[in-house]
Write a structure and sequence with these properties.
alpha+beta, Immunoglobulin-like, 4 domains, five-stranded mixed β-sheet
């Protein structure tokens, strides 16, 4: 018996001292050292759960003075070579590379890492829900004054338990964040120009460059010199010039497909591009101005169909009805005046945004609805339009003002066009978000060009009638029936005022917003009394209405911009959690799917998305699932964190919905108008499941 015990102890000692590492517990493998480098496998989750994509990592530590290499090493070296063939229940493992550093030694340019690096890995179990035993043979080239290839044997066992976050979940999430991705709002590659063996790249940084570097990959591979940099626009713009080292005779980079990785400190962006001769290259995600003008035209046209513009339907309808039976010249003039009002509003909006951007403020589509004074202005304006439709302005007001509020002159159609634009801004129609995002990330010229084109798109129906004015002749001639129609449409406009007051409630509180509503009711009453009175009393009514309007504007200043603001009411007791961007990576590392909904009370499209898609049917059931984190970013009031999140994704308007998960760590962006199929498909893809 003793002899068997001794034999067993000797066997255990041999196994413990063998070259094959033992499988580690708690999702962290044992360190394995080879020369100046040591490595281990780690996992962001303790168990496989039902994940179809496991967030893993290969962690390296190097002795001082030593380095290893990126996927494109440069003039020398080779990238890590990984063999997973001895693993159990592992279908595929994809290695991702954090942004590299440049090493320049004796004219040789290489790219890689020193001190330490954690490579994120996406592991795909062959059979989800079963244990996964990872066994990796990693071949690395490490260099100092000399280069030495090293081979390490690594292992890690993941049980079939719950996919809870491990102690290294945050480390894996940080490593994933350091992997260069597409456009992020911080860095942007504007153009790529090839001239023989030289490459010239123009780039922009939202916050200014510090020490930019550029890595170029081609097929077949070419090696490039370190870039020469020329800065402009307070270091927000840089021109990087690189040349091919040891080129083949007759080499010309023009027309060659490239992958560019632009790095500046902890910020990095990766983009495919094609070098062109004598002009800017088209970089996917950064379309040229001409293409964006087409997108803006289509977005402005579609905006006519959005729910934000529907409240002004009453004014549009009255404008059309008034032209029934009129001469073609008069019809053309009226509709051109409405188009001019729309275009003027867009140009004024562009001017304001250019000024705010130049002053360093946050810019965005519809952000004026975050300002209480603007909301009060809109409430007063809608109330006055309603009162005009009810005939309360016809006698006591001067002719000029009567024309402005819907009279027979051109000022009425012009004001209608401006009003339609103001009410359109809470919506982000298809294509509109892309065009506005492009404009606001560029300079004043692009902003004015895009916003003018958006105005033309919104005004296209008016321009069409102006081009064919005989269309208005098909309408019935004005008559007594218009009085009833005016009354009905006036009440329809008052519903818009009620909606605006509900948005104002979130800004200044229920009592203050209700006070503004009562002041508007008193304003209409004063106009009605003045309309019915005689003599001096006819003037007193409009004068009192003016005082009440001024009192409404004073209300936000009296209570403060957010004092007593109503809290955001969730659609479900436990479904939605507050937006916290820092936790998204942690949730994804733990195998959860994160649905981010950037919304606001003043965004009618957002409310339509909630009512028609997010809060009903199978989508609502999926949101209540324990593996889905429904995260809501409420932008009703100004919020710098949400504004930055939108900017980082190239967006400056809402609604904006994006889904993250193990199958989509970089996120899947959804269209402005949601559909049940699109949301369910994105949730499935993000979770790593087949749709």
């Amino acid at each position: 018996m003793k002899r068997h015990a001794v034999t067993l102890l000797l066997l255990l000692a041999v196994l413990a001292s063998g070259t094959a590492p033992a499988f580690a517990q708690d999702a962290v493998g044992s360190w394995s050292k080879a020369g100046p480098v040591e490595a281990r496998l780690v996992s962001a989750v303790r168990g496989t759960g039902d994940l179809t994509a496991l967030p893993l990592g290969l962690e390296l530590r190097l002795e001082p003075g030593w380095k290893t290499y990126w996927r494109s090493p440069g003039d020398a070296g080779f990238a890590p070579r990984l063999d997973w063939s001895r693993s159990v229940n592992l279908g595929e493992a994809k290695l991702f590379y954090p942004a590299p550093h440049r090493f320049s030694v004796l004219g040789f340019e290489t790219a890689g890492y020193d001190t330490a690096v954690l490579f994120p890995i996406q592991g795909m179990p062959a059979t989800p829900g079963k244990p996964v035993d990872l066994a990796l043979t990693a071949e690395l080239l490490v260099c100092s004054e000399i280069c030495v290839p090293q081979t390490l044997e690594l292992a890690l066992a993941l049980p079939a338990g719950p996919a809870e976050p491990s102690e290294v979940a945050n480390d894996v999430a940080r490593a994933q964040a350091l992997v260069p991705k597409g456009p992020n709002g911080l860095l942007r590659i504007d153009s790529v120009q090839g001239n023989g063996t030289a490459l010239e790249v123009e780039a922009t940084a939202a916050d200014g460059f510090v020490s930019p570097d550029l890595f170029v990959e081609t097929d077949p591979p070419l090696t490039f010199s370190a870039p020469k940099t020329v800065f402009s626009d307070n270091d927000r713009h840089v021109r990087l010039t690189l040349t091919v080292t040891d080129p083949q005779p007759g080499l010309d980079l023009t027309g060659r497909a490239l992958t560019l990785t632009l790095v500046d400190g902890d910020k990095a962006v990766e983009a495919p591009a094609m070098a062109v001769a004598g002009g800017a290259a088209s970089v996917p995600g950064g379309a040229g101005l001409v293409a964006m003008l087409g997108v803006a035209l289509l977005g402005g046209l579609i905006l006519n169909l959005m729910p934000c513009v529907l409240p002004v339907l009453s004014l549009k309808l009255m404008s059309v009805v008034k032209h029934g039976g009129r001469a073609p010249a008069a019809v053309r003039a009226g509709f051109l005046a409405s188009a001019a009002g729309i275009l003027t509003s867009f140009l004024l909006m562009a001017s304001v945004l250019v000024g705010i951007k130049a002053a360093g403020g946050a810019v965005g589509w519809g952000i004026q609805f975050q300002q209480p004074l603007f909301l009060v202005f809109m409430v007063v304006l809608v109330t006055l339009f309603s009162a005009n439709l009810w005939g309360l302005f016809e006698v006591p007001l001067p002719r000029v003002l009567a024309d402005r509020l819907g009279g027979d002159g051109l000022a009425g159609p012009f004001a209608t066009g401006m009003f339609a634009t103001l009410l359109a801004t809470p919506c982000s129609a298809p294509f509109l978000g892309t065009a506005v995002g492009f404009a606001l990330s560029e300079g004043p010229v692009e902003i004015y060009a895009i916003f003018a084109t958006l105005g033309v798109g919104l005004a296209l129906p008016y321009l069409a009638v102006a081009a064919w004015p005989r269309v208005a002749g098909w309408l019935p001639r004005p008559g007594r029936w218009m009085a009833t129609l005016k009354t009905v449409l006036g009440f329809a406009l008052m519903l818009t005022a009620v909606w605006l007051l509900s948005v104002l409630t979130a800004q200044i509180g229920e009592v203050a917003a209700a006070t503004v509503g009562l002041l508007m009711a008193a304003l209409v009453l004063a106009l009605w009394v003045g309309r019915s009175a005689r003599g001096a009393a006819r003037i007193a009514g409009p004068a009192l209405a003016g005082v009440l309007a001024v009192a409404a504007f004073a209300m936000p200043a009296a209570v403060g911009p957010s004092a007593g603001a109503a809290p955001v009411v969730s659609d479900s007791k436990a479904r939605w959690v507050p937006f916290a961007e820092a936790t998204i990576r942690e949730h994804v590392a733990a195998g959860r799917t994160v649905f981010v909904d950037v919304t606001a009370d003043w965004c009618i499209t957002c409310q339509a998305n909630k009512k028609l898609v997010l809060n009903r049917g199978e989508v609502a059931q999926r949101m209540d699932d324990a593996t889905v984190v429904a995260m809501r970013a409420d932008w009703t009031r100004p919020d710098a964190t949400i504004a930055k999140f939108l900017s980082d994704h190239g967006r400056y308007g809402i609604p904006f919905n994006i889904v993250y998960g193990p199958g989509a760590p970089d996120g899947i962006t959804l269209p402005e108008l949601l559909s049940e199929g699109a949301v369910l498909e994105a949730l499935s893809k993000a979770a790593g499941k087949a749709s």
